[in-house]
Design goal:
Largest sheet: 6 strands, antiparallel, barrel
Helix content: 10-25%
Radius of gyration: 18 Å
Shape: globular
Oligomer: single chain
């Protein structure tokens, strides 16, 4: 994206936020159109591998346009698959470029394992960044949307958007009814400071991990979709997948951005 296009994006986003703050309804399709350039695919590149680029999840751009937020398990899982092959992969992102895609290298700047978040620094020119909202303002029943890459990019590099509501604000983990249902991960989490996550009335798919959850009126990010970490803590006693989607509140993203 050149400077002229970036300026147009910033101006358009500023106007939309101004309308929202003034009480005017924002056209949701226009909001999605402005959100999509900030959504990237998290991937690794390995020249000798077929295919050379391996997708692992979704991320989104914040701050200066070169900072990307995703789930820690997305980054860790991607690198583990590659290093098991005995070679050093290049971590990065896929962004849209014309009718195709461009791979940009990325460096891990900070990891928050407790809240399953990762902060990356990418190369190249700045990308459009999303604005972060306030987790404390989120209420049950609130309308939300998230944009990412469901079912990975096996269907092509197409960012898909889903709408829903915040069904509940719920603890990350609750004690099991008996000790047989406790595993080491749950026990470790119970020993930490408890925190709540957003339970969403919306369906996310493999590949959506790391997608931003945002307000449908302003586009401000209020959470990060998590398809693995939270379910492993909350639903260990459930044999069949529940289909419930969870999101990590955005205040932990803001804390991660402060880490050096």
């Amino acid at each position: 994206m050149n400077n002229s296009s970036l300026l147009k994006y910033v101006l358009c986003t500023t106007l939309m936020l101004s309308f929202a703050q003034a009480g005017y309804a924002v056209d949701f399709p226009s909001l999605v159109k402005n959100i999509k350039p900030s959504i990237v695919a998290i991937a690794t590149f390995e020249k000798t591998r077929a295919p050379a680029v391996s997708f692992s999840g979704t991320g989104f751009v914040v701050g200066d346009g070169l900072t990307v937020i995703t789930n820690a398990h997305v980054v860790n899982g991607s690198l583990k698959v590659s290093t098991d092959n005995g070679t050093e992969p290049s971590l990065g992102i896929l962004v849209a470029k014309g009718e195709g895609t461009e791979f940009r290298s990325a460096t891990i700047i900070a990891i928050d394992e407790e809240h399953d978040l990762a902060r990356l620094r990418v190369t190249g020119s700045p990308l459009p960044a999303l604005e972060l909202g306030e987790a404390d303002s989120v209420v049950e029943g609130q309308a939300i949307a998230f944009t990412g890459f469901p079912l990975a990019i096996s269907l092509g590099f197409h960012r898909a958007t889903h709408k829903g509501t915040v069904a509940a604000i719920t603890p990350i983990v609750k004690p099991a009814q008996d000790s047989r249902r406790l595993d080491p991960k749950v026990v470790a989490q119970l020993r930490r400071t408890p925190y709540s996550v957003f339970q969403l009335d919306a369906t996310a798919y493999p590949g959506n991990s790391g997608s931003p959850v945002y307000e449908t009126e302003t586009g401000r990010v209020i959470g990060v979709i998590n398809m693995v970490f939270v379910k492993g803590l909350k639903e260990t006693a459930i044999t069949n997948p529940s289909g419930i989607t969870y999101a990590i509140p955005v205040n932990y993203v803001q804390e991660l951005l402060q880490k050096k």
